[in-house]
Specification:
The protein has 172 residues and is mainly beta. It contains 2 helices and 10 strands, in the order βββββββααβββ.
Length: 172
């Protein structure tokens, strides 16, 4: 239940890093969400250290369909917004997703080169999933994307995205 979007041969040898032109998704297995649950929360802990501004970043997507056993690429998809008490996306439209996704943006995401709290400490993140309980097939994806110009070779402190302790809780 942990994931590091990094290459150990790039950037700082202790943390690894990322290169230009990345789009990487950590996709859950297909989920069945309870239509009778009062609250369905996806939460995890994360650290992100990527190019500051609207260039490289990370966000969370939900893929959903009424078709049983649909694959993620055959589902509708959207970026979901963190709950109010969680760190909000720092950018409204990240270029890396604009470059690599066939959908038109905007693509909100976390970005930050050392100045955001999640760059230096593990931070808990939470999302409400109740709106997707009516669908037959649901996937959750944590995504990281980088643009074409600045990466961990330019700043070895940037390690990309790390997530841990991913879970979906219903009426916890």
């Amino acid at each position: 239940n942990s994931w590091r979007c990094f290459d150990p041969a790039v950037g700082n040898p202790a943390t690894g890093g990322y290169e230009n032109d990345w789009l990487d998704f950590l996709v859950s297995p297909a989920l069945t969400l309870s239509a009778t649950a009062d609250s369905i929360i996806f939460n995890f802990w994360f650290r992100a250290y990527a190019e500051d501004g609207n260039w490289d970043g990370a966000n969370v997507w939900v893929f959903y369909s009424d078709t049983p056993d649909a694959l993620p690429e055959d589902c509708q998809r959207e970026i979901i917004t963190p709950l109010a008490q969680s760190p909000q996306y720092t950018e409204t439209d990240v270029v890396a997703f604009d470059l690599w996704m066939p959908d038109p943006g905007p693509f909100p995401a976390w970005a930050g080169e050392g100045s955001e709290p999640f760059c230096n400490a593990w931070t808990e993140e939470r999302f409400l999933l109740n709106a997707y309980a009516a669908y037959t097939t649901v996937y959750i994806a944590v995504a990281f994307g980088s643009d074409t110009a600045y990466d961990s070779f330019d700043n070895p402190d940037m390690f990309g995205l790390q997530v841990d302790n991913l879970k979906v809780e219903q009426d916890y």
